[in-house]
Write a structure and sequence with these properties.
It is a single chain. This protein is α/β, with parallel strands linked by helices and 229 residues long. The protein contains eight helices and twelve strands. The strands form two sheets. Strands 1-2-3-4-5-6-7 form a seven-stranded mixed beta sheet, with helices on one face. The protein has a five-stranded mixed beta sheet with strand order 8-9-10-11-12, covered by helices on one side.
Length: 229
């Protein structure tokens, strides 16, 4: 259920979920913090096997929704791990009034994970405001929906045509066209990108796409070339 990705970081892939008629795979990331607790990024559906695997790593301390689209299973995890703190990106608390959040994510990392993880809010997008994270020990940047890549045969029929036009299918992960178009605040987004490019990124993980291993900073620069120019 949990796959090691680097020092103190694991991934887990879950079942696909349907959004606007498209099936999206799900992925979460588990990071063991210096003080021993666990940071859970974009939690997927919780099964008995996954719970046992997570519990074997340590105590769940932080449950994080990285954008307003990745929250479907957050409440379930919050109920199971009642002592964990839940954190929302800008805008999600109003959308999920059924969940009591302990804080909203900003440009400063929460004290509980500041020693291990940096973060920055990427503003100015009409679809969602995404918080991008950087795990220092593994040199890994965590993107959620801003960068995506699907296998060539993932979609069929008209969905495959739409996905190709949207840049969801390609030689390497890319920012979908719909997200590019939705950036109405590009100046603020560029400031956030400068923060991201300052990280010594080696690898990149995303919710929808194969991990990028090695030369992470160069890859991010290529993926956002359209914004930098």
């Amino acid at each position: 259920m949990l796959k090691p990705f680097g020092r103190d970081i694991w991934t887990a892939d879950g079942h696909a979920v349907s959004t606007a008629g498209f099936g999206y795979p799900t992925r979460m990331v588990v990071i063991r913090l210096s003080e021993g607790g666990l940071f859970i990024w974009s939690p997927i559906q919780l099964t008995d096997a996954l719970r046992a695997a997570v519990d074997a790593l340590g105590d769940v301390r932080c449950l994080v929704a990285p954008n307003s689209l990745h929250h479907l299973f957050l409440g379930e995890w919050g109920r199971v791990y009642g002592s964990a703190k839940l954190y929302a990106p800008p805008g999600l608390a109003k959308k999920r009034r059924d969940i009591v959040f302990d804080g909203e994510l900003g440009n400063e990392p929460i004290a509980g994970w500041a020693a291990d993880i940096d973060q920055v809010v990427v503003p100015g997008n009409l679809i969602t405001t995404e918080v991008v994270f950087f795990h220092r020990k593994s040199g890994t940047v965590l993107f959620t929906d801003l960068i995506q890549q699907f296998p060539a045969d993932w979609f069929s029929g008209w969905r495959a045509i739409v996905a190709r036009l949207d840049l969801m299918i390609g030689a390497e992960p890319a920012v979908p066209r719909k997200f590019r178009t939705a950036f109405i605040g590009r100046r603020a987004a560029r400031v956030a990108l400068e923060h991201i490019l300052a990280w010594p990124a080696e690898n990149v993980l995303m919710a929808h796409g194969a991990p990028v291993i090695g030369d992470g900073q160069a890859f991010i620069r290529r993926a956002f070339k359209w914004l930098i120019a």
